[in-house]
Amino acid sequence: MIKDITIGQYLPGDSFIHKLDPRVKILLAFLYIILIFLINNFYGYLVVIAFTLLVVMLAKIPIKYLFNGIKGVIWLIIFTAVLNATLTPGKVIFKLFNLIPFTDKGIDLALFMSMRLILLIVGTSVLTLTTSPISLTDGIERLLNPFKKIGVPAHELAMMMTIALRFIPTLLDETDKIMKAQMARGADFDSGGIIKKAKNLIPVLVPLFISAFRRADELALAMEARCYRGGENRTRMKQLKTDKRDYIAIAAFIAFSIICIISRRWR
Amino acid sequence: MEMIKVENVHYFYKKDINDEVKTVALEGINLEIKKGEFVAIIGHNGSGKSTLAKHFNAILLPDNGRVIVEGIDTRDNEHLWDIRSKVGMVFQNPDNQIVATIVEEDVAFGPENLGVPSEEIRKRVDDALKAVEMIDYAKHGPHLLSGGQKQRVAIAGVLAMKPSCIVLDEPTAMLDPSGRKEVLQTIKRLNMEEGITIVLITHFMEEAVEADRVVVISDGKVVLEGIPREVFKKVTLLKKLGLDVPQMMQLAHDLRKEGLDINEDILTIEEMVDALCQLK
């Protein structure tokens, strides 16, 4: 069961969206988030929703994955919506239990905020669902490369992410083993309150940390033996190439941005 | 010219900040490893065999004496990366030496560090994976592989750097018998077909038997050296050093002690069958 955890929830496929250069995808996702917060009326959101659904269809992502993403933060969305609806000053439309006032402007704002949050989650999910963790890391490394001069450790960050991704399954396996070993000796991980449960995990965490440090030590040695000396003069087997479809995607996105900006006047 | 030449090497583990208390790990090792040779180094736990292996590619530097790799002294800092790309190293734990999340990316790690151009890396990776018969797993995640397969990926990772020598530090210690066989076959094939010099550190005598030459190390000194048949004949000495003897060698030794007229240098089961059938 513990193995079911996947980071980033990558959904392998070979759609148009999957095949885009990760750098382009990361940049566009970033701009998309900015656009969501620029929109100020419902027509604008209709455009964004239509565009988002088009991208989701192009990426062939089953809708259920997107719902799962939203389900995780549904309480956050409801909470912000209620706060917005009740705390914004304006004409009171009705009072819940004759006590909590809902204002007209508040309801508008609540709808905007929930829409923004939902679109934010769907947009970023499309990025992580269609890009494998390794190309995400690659993309981030190359996007950060120009900032190396001002001291951003682009290569080191990417290397750390790669190693972290590489060791997640290994350490999960190990956790499983240690837990079973402790259970065989009578450890109980299921009963008691939160504090007791947390305390019971100490005998799992201590050996896990010790082994993680030992692994780190051996890995460093193995990397040095394979001539690793940081990002300097390093080449890569896979080169990222932007090709025709990336330009099509960028052009489509520019058109979409222009419509979004114009939509600010449709009120 | 020798591949690796070890001259009177001493190495101490410093246990104290003042370097006062010293544990001697290597005490005057002399050794020559020729190009294309398959050498097995055996010894019990704590004999210094792993410490010696780490000297071959300048992970450790000798406190006394010197190690020469293809004419370059390992203490020569300028050529450190030359030495490490000439002498590749495979470690015991297959999990702790795989860096990337995809097999082919991991194999590419070495040549990427060396600054090899992209197309050349692609070619080297494919060749290396073919050489260890793991090309079908190129796109797999390493955590989905068996121990023997992971160790073969680690060997491919070294191969992609085009080394002339591979040092394997107990590569089979954490594997099951079938994984052990896979790895040993791979090593032997690389030695025979590609002419790569192999130094195998092991405590499995059955593996050492396959080598051209066996070096026995005990307490930081070379105590015995020679072709497997000659070395394993010395059953009593090996036992005294805390080492096992290949099963058939042991059996032949015991049979001789019981007064049976049988050769004492029998290594394999087939040879034993032959010898027993010829008894009158």
TrEMBL record, chain A:
Annotated InterPro entries: ABC/ECF_trnsptr_transmembrane (IPR003339), ECF_transporter_component (IPR051611), EcfT (IPR024919)
Stored Pfam families: CbiQ (PF02361)
GO cellular component, one term: plasma membrane
Compartments in which it is found: Cell membrane
Residue ranges of the TM segments: 26-59, 65-88, 109-130, 247-266
Topology of the protein relative to the lipid bilayer: Multi-pass membrane protein
Keywords on record: Cell membrane, Membrane, Transmembrane, Transmembrane helix, Transport
A GO term for molecular function: transmembrane transporter activity
Lineage: superkingdom: Bacteria
Similarity comment text for this entry: Belongs to the energy-coupling factor EcfT family.
Alphabetical list of PANTHER family matching this protein: SLL0384 PROTEIN (PTHR34857)
Subunit structure, interactors included: Forms a stable energy-coupling factor (ECF) transporter complex composed of 2 membrane-embedded substrate-binding proteins (S component), 2 ATP-binding proteins (A component) and 2 transmembrane proteins (T component).
Official protein name in the record: Energy-coupling factor transporter transmembrane protein EcfT
Species whose genome carries this gene: Caloramator australicus RC3
From TrEMBL, chain B:
Transmembrane segments: none
Keywords for the protein's UniProt record, in alphabetical order: ATP-binding, Cell membrane, Membrane, Nucleotide-binding, Translocase, Transport
NCBIfam families in UniProt: cbiO (TIGR01166), ECF_ATPase_1 (TIGR04520), PRK13648.1 (NF010167)
BP-aspect Gene Ontology terms: cobalt ion transport
GO terms, molecular function: ATP binding; ATP hydrolysis activity; ATPase-coupled transmembrane transporter activity
InterPro entries reported in the protein's UniProt record: AAA+_ATPase, ABC_transporter-like_ATP-bd, ABC_transporter-like_CS, ABC_transpr_CbiO/EcfA_su, Co_trans_ATP-bd, ECF_ABC_transporter_ATP-bd, EcfA_1, P-loop_NTPase
Subcellular location: Cell membrane
Family recorded in the similarity comment: Belongs to the ABC transporter superfamily.
Residue ranges of domain ABC transporter in the record: 4-244
GO cellular component, as recorded: ATP-binding cassette (ABC) transporter complex
Known role: Probably part of an ABC transporter complex. Responsible for energy coupling to the transport system. Part of an ABC transporter complex. Responsible for energy coupling to the transport system.
Keyword Transport listed: yes
Annotated membrane topology: Peripheral membrane protein
PROSITE patterns with a match to the protein in the record: ABC_TRANSPORTER_1, ABC_TRANSPORTER_2
Protein's name in the database: ABC transporter ATP-binding protein
